[in-house]
Design goal:
By secondary structure, this protein is an alpha+beta fold. It has 3 domains: about 5-450, no CATH class; about 460-565; about 580-715, Coagulation Factor XIII, Chain A, domain 1 (Distorted Sandwich). A 5-stranded mixed sheet has the order 4-3-5-7-6, with helices on both faces. It has a 5-stranded antiparallel sheet with strand order 14-11-9-8-17, with helices on one face. Helix 14 (about 330-345) runs antiparallel to helix 15 (about 355-365).
Length: about 725
Amino acid sequence: MREDDIGLRERETKDVSGPDADSAPATRNVSYPRGRGALPEFTLLLALFITFRLFTGFLYRPGGYVRDYSDFIFYLGGASQIDHGAFPFRDYWSEYPPPFPWITVALYQLVRPIPLWEDHRLWFNAALILFLLLWETIGLIALYGIARRAWGRERALRTAWLYAGLFAPVYTLTSAFDAFPLAFMLLGLWAVLAARPTWAGLAIGVGTAIKLFPIVILGPAVRALRGLRRWATLFIPVLLIVLLVAVVAYSLSPAYFAAFARSLVARSGWSTIWALLDGFDHIGAIVGDRADPQADVSLYESQLPWPIITAIFGLIYLAVWTRRWEDLTPPRTVAVAGFTVSLLFLYFKAWNPQYLVYLLPFIVLLLPDLRGLAYAVLLTGFNVVEHPILAGVLTEAPWLLGAVAIARTLLLLALTIETGAMVARPALAPPRWWPRVAWGIMAFVVIGGVSLVPPAWDVYRSSRLLKDRYGPTAIFLRAQAQSEPITLVLTDRMAFRHLYPFLHDRVNLVLAAGPQREKRLASLSRSGGTLWVWVDAAEGTEVVDWLADGQPFIRWAMPGGAVYRIGTDEGWAPAGLGTLDGRFRLVGAHVDPLLAMPGQKITLMLYWTRVDAAEGSYTVFTHLLTPEGTLAAGRDNPPVNGTMPTHMWPERTLIVDRYRLRVPWDARSGEYPIEVGMYDPATGVRLTATDAAGQPTGDRILLPQRLRVLPRLWRAWRDKARRGG
């Protein structure tokens, strides 16, 4: 870059994004004494930027307490294949262009002589963080240089501080490699503003060879650097670098290079409005065996008319790109770049959280104010909801992923309109009324997101009850608490913590552990009445014997332990939802999730006990009924997938029986009842049923839970495609 990029005198352009946006830009000359001013202040920011990210990279794990997960796991897995003599693009393909997989192999070989730490990822991750931090720092310098070229020192510092304070770039630095190509993307734009087409071509070419996104800078570059000679010096380095990398990779293995190329064009969409229109509402990824050059990388076959969609977006881009053609000033060029990136992600069929780092620099460049910060924070928030919450916690909530994709699309659309207006309007700013529209869109997104918190919380509680190892015990005790007050004694604190969220509103839980153990046990033994005690499988029964003090008690076996009911006779039987033929009692049931979409699978857990000895083996039927009472879905099989026939059920043991049912693709919205029962597989005759009060209910038990099916929304498209249009 030229010396005046960091010199002592500069031409500063007035920020025109405020209320006086329709007036012409004003300029003024500002002088700073040597050793003071922009460079020292930016150096201070740079020092904080580097040290903060350095410490974060070593001491912080992406996902926090939710999920220890990042793409570094896959990078290490690929690089470590060199231990088997396998090299990327020679012995397996990658969804990333060749340079980065090759670099990870070099980093892995660099740290391989170091003795492993307890977490074997430490040294590879440390080397990768240091490598990426170098490019993250270069990216910040380039961002500052771009802003200073376009708007002057004051706004450049503001832009750099805003970017340094954003969370998404830090998270991406520790979980993905996108800081590497992003640095070249920003370097390329900086060189364009400095009218250096050769340097711009080199930066864009290297960035494109690492990951394809930096190639979009060619759009604003061609617009800003006029003339055949400049275009030639811009494009030739790009073509030579990309061609060189392609030739080297192709020479290693034409088949694996072809597999990589196919993965670029054949991959499916996910987490976008386009994926929803195709009926796909799950977290996606590139699939396929990397060792198989013929692997299928798609998750589904798209039904959308992509040639038409591409043509429409191309025409939109061309219409905006050619506006204000005579204006070659740096601010206009940055606006074109911001519009290009915004439109690209609006068009792109898939979304990964790290994609946001390509958009954030242009948000802080063009909108270094509260509105820009709101865009950045909201988009980051949706990333966090998607990864790690939806990917690791609320995996059975496709409706929430759909809501996130729609909300993100609205924000991307708003950004595309706003940056497009900056390109097209003389004052380099959207109309005066646009900020109110943008804030309205953001308010709508926030209010909609807040309204989804209660159902999302219900999904979380339901899923934890299903997956918790103490879940069956909680279901059993909640059923007994319907008919009698229960005091449950526990001596293990973790068992207490697991059961408390599911029982505290119905059961009196007492933790008899720690310094108060003897005092609490003595108080309980004097209280009289019926006591329940949870005993882990690894524990003895000393507490039960001590509390019983000669009283009778009954033991009921649970997964992972047992519950003891002290102060009862041998004839006591647990309460439940109903009984079949006086021999099998359905103690409880759990449906997860209770909020589902058409085509979604649900889990039905049934908790049985044997009331009386039974001969023969019976088959369980589970039916999901429509609101009108007709059969919507069903599953019949012997209990516990055939591994626990009814004639083998132990006495006083809770049998956990799991089923998976799929809501029909053409299901209408409404509440769907669920019925269960048993029949003799030899004759087909069903067992008679009674409800919890002992009243006859025919040959079925109707569960108290009802599945709520949401409107079909985007899944109607999937049903249309499934039926062939």
